[in-house]
Task: inverse folding
């Protein structure tokens, strides 16, 4: 199933209260939107939410893989945890992150790092402005929250799961590893796995079904004519037609939001994850510091040209150097092996 680390084969977890609340929303005529893998694309997800035009009783369910690959997983998790209308289930990327918690410490596994975890860890360091202790505390707290997420959601006419179900295992006896990682055995099956419920899932990009940038439907049909499954991972970081998609299970409507240009990170790197992964966020902190310093110098020059200041410096370019030099600002984030006395900017 694509994972070499030891993910437990415990029974898949459901939350009956969550399922009851979602079913009550549907029965009352409210909308329940289901969204595929967001993978740290915070601003694109916010744009998708805006297009949903949520009303007070509407709900949004994320099908796991909220983190990894993209530019800002840490802030995305913070946003969805605080949003009262968003519910999440666990994905395989959340499960890999959870395994980084070892007792009272954090050990970043090589498997997770190789599958996009470096961008997530880097985003926590950036969010903490280089404070490694604060980054660890926030990451551990979020991992504890992710560990408590249900593995899937079962409603009267729908199943919501990250990867799918194994056709040779009874539907109510599926284990967590299977439904977080399965691919071909699930969507290649020639008959409905649950004859009464359509399965909504992410995990496998819809490019695998020849649906670049759009949701995919099974050719296998239920008795009521609906497809046996609908794939919603339209892949926010696919080089061609990248997007996030949402499906309204009350009406069958779908919304597609193209990945914002500001989050098309693959155009800036040859890596398979956003540049925030470089040096676990240190590169991003330095870029931001350089940009902020250059902006202040530009503002000073404009003030001098307007006669508001007599002090002005000529146009300059900047680079980070390891030597004793006065710090440009007291708010400069410190991280890694660089001490305050060794960070500075020179022309």
Result:
């Amino acid at each position: 199933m694509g994972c070499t680390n030891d993910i437990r084969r415990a029974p898949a977890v459901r939350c009956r209260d969550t399922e009851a609340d979602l079913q009550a929303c549907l029965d009352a005529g409210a909308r329940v939107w289901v969204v595929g893998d967001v993978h740290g694309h915070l601003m694109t997800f916010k744009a998708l939410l805006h297009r949903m035009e949520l009303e007070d009783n509407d709900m949004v369910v994320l099908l796991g893989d909220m983190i990894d690959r993209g530019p800002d997983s840490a802030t995305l998790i913070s946003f969805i945890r605080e949003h009262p209308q968003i519910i999440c289930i666990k994905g395989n990327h959340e499960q890999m992150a959870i395994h980084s918690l070892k007792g009272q410490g954090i050990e970043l596994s090589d498997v997770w790092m190789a599958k996009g975890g470096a961008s997530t860890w880097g985003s926590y360091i950036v969010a903490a402005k280089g404070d490694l202790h604060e980054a660890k505390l926030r990451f551990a707290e979020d991992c504890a929250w992710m560990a408590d997420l249900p593995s899937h959601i079962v409603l009267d006419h729908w199943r919501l799961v990250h990867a799918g179900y194994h056709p040779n295992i009874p539907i109510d006896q599926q284990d967590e590893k299977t439904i977080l990682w399965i691919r071909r055995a699930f969507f290649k099956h020639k008959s409905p796995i649950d004859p009464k419920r359509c399965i909504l899932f992410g995990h496998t990009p819809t490019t695998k079904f020849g649906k670049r940038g759009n949701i995919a439907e099974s050719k296998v049909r239920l008795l009521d004519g609906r497809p046996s499954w609908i794939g919603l991972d339209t892949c926010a970081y696919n080089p061609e037609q990248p997007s996030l998609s949402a499906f309204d299970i009350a009406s069958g409507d779908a919304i597609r939001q193209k990945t914002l240009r500001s989050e098309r990170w693959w155009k800036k790197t040859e890596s398979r994850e956003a540049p925030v992964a470089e040096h676990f966020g240190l590169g991003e902190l330095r870029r931001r510091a350089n940009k902020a310093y250059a902006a202040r110098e530009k503002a000073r020059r404009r003030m001098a040209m307007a006669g508001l200041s007599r002090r002005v410096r000529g146009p300059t370019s900047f680079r980070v150097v390891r030597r004793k030099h006065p710090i440009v600002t007291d708010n400069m984030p410190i991280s890694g092996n660089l001490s305050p006395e060794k960070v500075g900017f020179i022309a």
Observations:
- The domain at 16-265 is CATH 3.60.21.10 (Purple Acid Phosphatase; chain A, domain 2).
